[in-house]
Please model this.
Amino acid sequence: MASVIKGLSKLCIHTQTTKPWSLQECVTNYSKAGVKAITIWRNVLEGINLNEAKKILDDADMKVVSLCRGGFFPSVDSKRRNEAIDDNLLAIEQAAAIGAPLIVLVCGSDSRQPLETSREQIKEGILKILPAAEAAGVKLAIEPLHPMYAADRSAVNTLQQATDMADEIGSPFVGVALDVYHLWWDNNLEREIKRCGHNGHLFAFHICDWKVPTTDMLLDRGMMGEGCVNIRQIRGWVEDTGFTGFNEVEIFSSTYWEQDQEQLLHKVINAYLHHS
Amino acid sequence: MASVIKGLSKLCIHTQTTKPWSLQECVTNYSKAGVKAITIWRNVLEGINLNEAKKILDDADMKVVSLCRGGFFPSVDSKRRNEAIDDNLLAIEQAAAIGAPLIVLVCGSDSRQPLETSREQIKEGILKILPAAEAAGVKLAIEPLHPMYAADRSAVNTLQQATDMADEIGSPFVGVALDVYHLWWDNNLEREIKRCGHNGHLFAFHICDWKVPTTDMLLDRGMMGEGCVNIRQIRGWVEDTGFTGFNEVEIFSSTYWEQDQEQLLHKVINAYLHHS
Model:
């Protein structure tokens, strides 16, 4: 079991957690609350140029942990697959421009074709963008998604599968983003975290909670402590691999997005300190 | 890949698929449509005595494949765990009385305790009811449920886990019920079906489909062919193990339950013949 969290030095918040806020609002408010690290969702980069975004981040001395998200490689339509490659190359440019060392890949799935085909296309897609990522010094993290998203969001659904894919690709620039929401149920999780870390693939650690009941498959994630995930136990397994990265809070919740976002930010920090 | 289905001799329908119907209505209508096998959900036994139920089934020469459902073993509360044992013993009596050779176990989970604890309590629960099951000649099938139910319906979420548990228990009366809805996403499914069958544990095969999008986590299952599951491929893997049991249609759908149930039954049969 991991030790109790004592401060905010390892806390990173995903801009999507406070979705109603612009990049500037995220940075200003996170900073004011003592949060020093951020993961940028690409929607907050829309409508501002990348130099401006970089300046907002630098002015606040805000560390960028990741850019979310690349991926969505598979499609029955080769034109769509090519568009996905272009979009991922753009993401690499964006990441390099704002100083994000990592892109999280939500790998995608196309329910009109076998999962095996989608999985092959994911691997192909990553191999295609890898030279650009390496040249830009930007790492890529395969994020295994909960099996309830296998049909439309990711054909990579367990840590074992993601680690195997990273192994097969075999580049120090390709690893895994581990989100407790997607993987908490897996009876092999401890073993697979150890293997992923041992193989040098553990690039990112995302936290939130699984609510009981969960009323929406996408937008009903819980605040840490509000659900049934033993976050501290999983964090312990992650830290035991030698992982020294951030604990990234990523909560998609239509309920929380409707609330006052400053109050939400304080709830996040409180939950982080007491339930992570 | 399995061969095309040519008739209804291997078709079994779960009474829950046509939930608005009583046992008598299910049996009468299934028979009229040429369906010769049924899996009985316990709700249709409420309010009639078991001899009466048996007579309804025998009069129509309807083969009973399974009784659904036992299980729900875990709880933080030992009184609730004991009540679950009593309820499972009752299910064994019911199964024996109506001639059901198998009880499907929806194993349960209690989100107030670690998954590991729930898993231990599931195994303990099965071991407690096993002597009664053996004495009654009724088999027990652990049904691994989709990981989205790990918090509240089953802490057994993969075929590997279910097969391991059946192996550990080591009785010819304990095996596995495989439902494509719960397991289609698993990249190890073919291998695990082979192992499950090889170990003598493959007791039942349930079919329906995964809709894209799925709008409700419980009551939005699809008719075969309506979603993205490659049912024929999975049926081929199952049959390759030597499985000669029924293909059991089990669809929970608030949409279908609102429709005319005779028309629904004909949709089921048509989908079975063309998309299974």
